[in-house]
């Protein structure tokens, strides 16, 4: 369990993290989302004691990370996959890390196998591609079989095969009862990987909700098409139901599900030529949530022209 309480981080005039509070629970994958510069990395660095909060606190399993006696066994961290000695082999890098915690060579070889680096275990990490470096960083995070994992953009640099692999790995780790906290820019990726989302923008909490709830909030009503729209509208009318004619006999209906609309139409013999639940993409729902929080906005060439 990770608990962040009223966390604040200021760098001079910049408030990177602004009174942020959330809890990351075990047994599920929690995605940490936000636009560029939202404060995700700063928050993660404070959780693992690499940055000191200006105010507030962050704990892992009830204690500040810095006070853990064997942190590798408590918390697996991937913050900067490039943080290896370039002249050292992948295996030696992990052996050196493991040595500080009494972790044996057999475990090092097992994690190298798990992340798909067994064949290049003796190659210098300086020669690694971005994706290989990322896999090595994940190996380091898993080395101590920690109960809590904190991974900053782990899919960065991975090919589609690697992305699928990490998705399954994270889900498996959560299914074993571990706390899995993973940051990303990509809503689409998190929708496939995470069960719960913590979304921040401009240093603040924007949303803390199950993925399923975001999916539900993206519902845009039902389109029902009939040659007798007036009669259908009269049938569907009721409290909380909003009916907007779209032309050509198509009604947009909110407040009633497609099944109920179909049932009523059938009951009164009204033919339907269309009945479809409308869903905004998760990406759209996410962009709506974070619209006010985007700091670094690009302009499309069309707009700029
Ligand atoms: N060491 C630092 N000194 C000064 N400002 C910093 C420092 N680290 C981060 N910031 C600022 O804090 C804000 C949050 O940055 P942070 O890297 O935490 O965001 P992020 O959500 O991880 O972004 P990204 O997705 O682009 O990695 C930014 O405005 C950034 O410029």
UniProtKB/TrEMBL annotation:
Entry annotated with the keyword Nucleotide-binding: yes
PROSITE patterns in alphabetical order: ABC_TRANSPORTER_2
Taxonomic lineage from the root: Bacteria, Bacillati, Actinomycetota, Actinomycetes, Pseudonocardiales
Protein family per UniProt: Belongs to the ABC transporter superfamily.
Pfam family, any one: ABC_tran
Name of the featured protein: ABC-2 type transport system ATP-binding protein
Organism from which the protein derives: Crossiella cryophila
Annotated GO MF terms: ATP binding; ATP hydrolysis activity
ABC transporter domain location: 2-227
Keywords of the record: ATP-binding, Nucleotide-binding, Transport
Keyword presence, Ion transport: no
């Amino acid at each position: 369990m990770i608990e962040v309480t009223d966390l604040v981080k200021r760098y001079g005039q910049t408030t990177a993290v602004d009174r942020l509070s959330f809890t990351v629970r075990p047994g599920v994958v929690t995605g940490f989302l936000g636009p560029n510069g939202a404060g995700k990395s700063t928050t993660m660095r404070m959780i693992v004691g690499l940055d000191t909060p200006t105010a507030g606190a962050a704990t892992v399993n009830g204690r500040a990370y810095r006070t853990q006696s064997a942190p590798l066994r408590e918390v697996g961290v991937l913050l900067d996959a490039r943080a290896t000695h370039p002249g050292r082999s992948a295996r030696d890098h992990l052996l050196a890390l493991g040595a500080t915690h009494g972790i044996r060579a057999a475990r090092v070889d097992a994690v190298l196998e798990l992340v798909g680096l067994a064949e290049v275990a003796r190659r210098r990490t300086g020669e690694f591609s971005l994706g290989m470096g990322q896999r090595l960083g994940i190996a380091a995070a898993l080395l101590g079989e920690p109960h809590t994992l904190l991974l900053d953009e782990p899919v960065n640099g991975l090919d589609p095969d690697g992305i699928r692999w990490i998705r399954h790995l994270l889900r498996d780790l959560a299914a074993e009862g571990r706390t899995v906290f993973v940051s990303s820019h990509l809503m689409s990726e998190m929708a496939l990987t995470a069960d719960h989302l913590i979304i921040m923008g401009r240093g603040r909490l924007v949303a803390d909700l199950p993925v399923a709830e975001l999916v539900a909030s993206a519902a845009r009503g039902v389109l029902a098409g009939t040659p007798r729209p007036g009669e259908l509208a009269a049938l569907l009318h009721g409290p909380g139901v909003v009916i907007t004619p779209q032309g050509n006999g198509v009604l947009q209906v909110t407040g009633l599900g497609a099944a109920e609309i179909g049932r009523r139409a059938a009951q009164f013999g009204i033919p339907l030529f269309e009945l479809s639940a409308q869903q905004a993409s998760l990406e759209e729902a996410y962009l709506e949530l974070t619209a006010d929080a985007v700091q670094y906005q690009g302009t499309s060439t069309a707009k700029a022209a």
